Amino acid sequence: MLRFLVILFVIGFGLELWGLITVGSLIGGWNTVLLVIVTGLLGAWLAKQQGVQVFRTLQFQLSRGQMPTETIIDGVLILVGGILLLLPGFVSDVIGLIFLIPYTRMMLRHLLKQWLWYLISSGRIRFLFRR
Question: Does the keyword section mention Cytoplasm (predicted)?
């Protein structure tokens, strides 16, 4: 697992650097820096908006006694998307936007739930308090 994370980090860093250099050569260095700052600010604003909406939904579901499983998954996806948008680079910005846009987040949530159910049913994830 550690080997996979190291490879992912190196490839991700390389892609981000390649993207910044490519965009910088097309539009100029200062414009690239400005674009990175603008996408970071826009990402923070969008993450805040989506996060507040998910928090309100979570409060409503808990007040009605409902289990907020999908809402919690949405909150985690919004957190990851916000972090990705705050990182400098364009590849992470695109992935972060995919995590923050409600329609694409719904598809990601569905895929994540299927993957988690697969892990649970295959025995790769075990519950901590088993009797």
Answer: no
